[in-house]
Each structure stands twice: as C-alpha cells, then as structure tokens.
Design brief:
The longest helix is centred in the last third of the chain and has 19 residues. This protein starts with a helix and ends in a 5-residue tail after the last helix. It contains five helices and eleven strands. The chain has one domain. The protein is of the alpha+beta class.
C-alpha cells in the first residue's frame, strides 16, 4: 500500500498545474514564480529593489558583448542543429518565443489577459516576451513582427553582370546568431554588504551586410531583447554542454549565474547614451572597455578598510 501511494503521489507531481490569466508585471524588478510542477525552477536570488535607495547605495549599468567565436563561449553556439538532449542558446530562445501564440492583437502595454502555456510543459509559467528596447517597455505585439522571424540580408553577396552586389533575404536561423549583448546592473547592497551584479537583459545578435555607397560592411543587429529573469525559467530547464565532466549537467542558467563566459564591455550608462565604438576606435576602444571594467573592480576594493 505504501509503494502504491508513493507511485500515485509521484505521478501527480509530474503533471503541470493550471493557472489563471497572465498579467504584465508593472514593476519588472519584481519577479514572480512559475506555477509549474515537475520542472526545475530557477535558483532564487536575493530580492533587490533597485529603486529603493535605502538598500542600494550605488549602482552602475553596463552592456557587454559575448562573442561566440571564442572557445569558452562556443557552448552557447553548438549544436547548430538541435538534438533531443541539447540545444544551442539561440535555439532555446527562439523556441521559447514560438511555444505558444502569445502575440495576439489584444496584447498591449496594459494587457490584462494574454500569454499562457496551455498544452506545454511550462503551463502556468511566464511567457518569454520579446521587446524592442532594452528598457523592456515596448513588447512586440505579433510574432510576425519580430525581425528574427521575418527575414534578413544574407552575408553572401551575389555579383551581377554589371559588377554590383545584391544580397538574398533569408530567415534567421539559430546558427546565424554569432554574439549576444547583455545588460547588467552592478550594485552595492547595503542590506547584505556585498558588491553584486544582476543580468537584466539578453539580446541575440546577428550580422548583416549593408552598403555605404559601394563599400559593404557588416553591422550588428540588436532588435530583440528578452527580460532575463523571465528567460531563466527556460534556461534552467535546458542543458548546456559541460566540457569537463559529462556526468555533471549544467543548465544555461547555471552558466550565466557562475559567469562561465568571456565578454567585453561595449557601453556604460552615460549622459549621451553612446556606445564605446562611437567615440573610440581600435586599441582606444579596448582600453576604454578595460577602464570601465577596472572601475567596477576598484569600487569593491575601496570599500574595505584595514
């Protein structure tokens, strides 16, 4: 009888639960929980309200780029074709946007009903919403409007009889994502007395070829942003390759929390809202990126007194 009860209870826990209508949170710093049973939940981080000056004495907002051509970052790029056990990071994000049709015409900034996960393993959880900006104030209303799912200009040019180059329009595939942009908030939490960081946004970047006159150049496309605390519900349930031990399974959420990637800073919050590339080139841009990184490290060391 005891064995039978255990089997019945375990099977009941594996079923996802149903929940009511989903509403867009008014404060994106307040992250809710997914009402999903039988699936992993993201690790709870310390609750930090970045608007509360009594708890956060200092903060810096930076943007950094993860280049997938670097060896340590290749775990985000492969496999280029999804397998039953593993998917690339871009494939996970693309699939999350297409899990259900959540971008109906009735979905707006003040929507009271909309995204749900009926018929999926994540029923009752947050839906991964795509935004046009890194402030997460302008969501895409229809999935067909998202540039990733429309078309792109191919990187392979075709030369016609007059010597002019034209480019085909193709659908973006996960293998076309060659880098990611992260938006981070570094802050000093007075309640815990720690200098900490939170990733608040992630943007898959792909490159297209454009022409300035007769001179072609490659350009980063940054037109789809995801609120990272929402994306964590998907990332913690997707396996990332561990090059050190096949028995130790990592999730993409684990990799980001442990910061097991290499990146460089491309922007810090500034009065002119400029990227580093807009006022520095070559070695000067590298030095500027390292200066910002050093300032973040020095702030923590200067907090100590002996």
């Amino acid at each position: 009888m005891v064995v039978a009860l255990l089997i019945i209870s375990s099977s009941a826990m594996a079923q996802p639960t149903h929940s009511g209508d989903w509403t867009l949170p008014t404060d994106l710093n307040q992250v809710g929980k997914a009402a999903v049973q039988g699936y992993k939940q993201p690790i709870e981080l310390s609750a930090v309200n970045f608007l509360d000056e009594n708890e956060v004495l200092y903060k810096r907002v930076v943007w950094r780029r993860i280049e997938l051509k670097e060896k340590i970052n290749q775990k985000f790029y492969y496999p280029t074709v999804a397998t039953p056990s593993r998917q690339s990071l871009a494939s996970v994000l693309f699939e999350a946007m297409q899990t259900v049709s959540v971008y109906g015409d009735d979905y707006g900034d003040e929507a009271q009903s909309g995204p749900n996960f009926k018929g999926t393993p994540f029923e009752g959880a947050y839906t991964l919403i795509a935004y046009k900006d890194d402030d997460f104030t302008k969501p895409y209303h229809n999935i067909e409007d998202i540039p990733i799912f429309t078309s792109r200009t191919s990187l392979t040019g075709i030369t016609d009889s007059l010597g002019r180059q034209t480019y085909d329009t193709l659908r973006i595939e996960p293998r076309d994502v060659l880098s990611y942009m992260l938006k981070e908030i570094w802050f000093f939490d007075a309640k815990r007395s720690v200098w900490d960081v939170r990733i608040v946004g992630i943007c898959p970047e792909y490159r297209i070829k454009k022409n300035i006159g007769e001179r072609p150049y490659e350009n980063y496309e940054q037109n789809v942003w995801f609120y990272f605390p929402q994306a964590r519900y998907y990332l913690c349930n997707k396996t990332c390759y561990n090059p050190h031990n096949d028995l130790e399974m990592w999730s993409y959420d684990d990799v980001f929390l442990m910061r097991m990637f290499n990146s460089y800073i491309v922007k810090e919050d500034n009065i002119q809202d400029r990227m580093i590339s807009e006022y520095a080139r070559g070695i000067d841009a590298i030095l500027e990126s390292e200066r910002i990184k050093k300032d973040l490290i020095d702030y923590e060391t200067q907090l100590w007194e002996y």
